[in-house]
Amino acid sequence: MVRLDRIGKRYGRGPWVLRDVSLSVEPGEAVVVTGGNGSGKSTLLRIAAGLSRPSVGAVSRPRSVGWLPERFPSGVRLSARDYLRHQAAVRGVPARWDLVEALGFVGDPDAPMATLSKGNTQKIALVQALTARDLLVLDEPWSGLDVAAASTLRSFLASTPASVLVTDHHGHDLPGARVLPLGAAATGVVIELARVGELLPEVSALEGVLSAAAVGTGARVEVAAAHSDRVLAAVLELGCSVRSVRS
Ligand SMILES: Nc1ncnc2c1ncn2[C@@H]1O[C@H](COP(=O)(O)OP(=O)(O)OP(=O)(O)O)[C@@H](O)[C@H]1O
User: Fold this and answer.
1) How many CB atoms lie within 10 A of CB 85?
2) Nearest CA, atom 10, ligand 1
3) What is the model's pTM?
C-alpha cells in the first residue's frame, strides 16, 4: 500500500503547492486525483511514485512502482518492442506485448519510439507502467487514447491487484475509484488579488492558504474554506487589493 502522511510541498521558497495532504491507497484500490491546472496533481503523483520528496510529511510505498509521466520523454531511440523488453527485464517481469495489443497499438513495433503517433506512444508508455506489481502511478493516463483503448485501460485498472493512483481532469469514469480533489476543487474558495507586489510569500504563508500563484501583477490564492474569512481580512490588512472571491 502507498501512504502519504500529512505531506506538504513547496518548490524552493515558492508558495505551497500541497499542504497537509494525507492519503493511503490499499492494494486493489484506485484513487483519482482531480483539480484545476496547477493544483498540484502531478506534484502529488511524483511524490507518491518516489520521484520527488515532500517538503514536510512522510511517505511509504511498496517496492514495485510503475510510473507514467504526464509527458513521455521525447527522443527515446529504442523501438517500442526493445523499450518494453528492457523495462520488463529491469523489473524482472515478462514483457506484456499482449497488453500492447489489447490497447490496440497500431504502428511498427520495431521502429524508433520517436516515430510513433501520440496515442501509440502513450500505449507503450502505459504498458511500461502497468507491468509494475504493487503500485501504479499514472499521470493523465487517458491522454491521447482512443475510445477503445480508454475502455481497455479502465477495465485493467478496475481489476488489477495493485494500488492505483491516477490524475484526471476530463472526468473519465473509473468505476469504484475514490476521488481526491486538490486545490479549489477541495477548498471551494479562490481569492484573486489585483496587486500583490512583494507580498506573495507573506500571503502564501497565511494559515489556510493552500496555494498562491503570481498572475501578472496579481495572484490567484486557493484557500481552505474554513479559513477564507480570516485570509480575506489578512490580505486586505497586508495592503493587497482583492479583485474577486469565488467558491
Ligand atoms: N519543478 C518545479 N519547480 C517549481 N515549481 C513547480 C515545479 N513543478 C511544478 N511547479 C509548480 O507547482 C504547481 C503545481 O504544479 P503541478 O504540475 O503539480 O500541477 P497540476 O495540477 O498537475 O497541473 P496541470 O493540470 O496543469 O498538469 C504549479 O504552480 C507549478 O508551476
Assistant:
1) 15
2) 11
3) 0.78
Q: 8 and 93: one domain?
A: yes
- Ligand 1 binding pocket (C-beta < 6 A) is 11, 14, 17, 35, 37-43, 169, 213
Q: What's the gap between Cα 204 and its chain centre?
A: 22
Indicate whether this complex's ipTM tops 0.95: yes
pLDDT at position 184 is 62
Query: Reduced to 3 states, what is the DSSP secondary structure of residue 81?
Result: helix
CATH number reported for the structural domain that contains residue 123 in this entry? 3.40.50.300
- Do residues 191 and 168 both lie within one domain? no
Decide which of 56 and 225 is more confident: 56
* Total of domains in the chain: 2
Residue 141 zone, left/alpha/beta (φ > 0; ψ -120 to 50; rest): alpha
pLDDT of 152 > 90? The answer is yes
21: which strand partners? Answer: 7
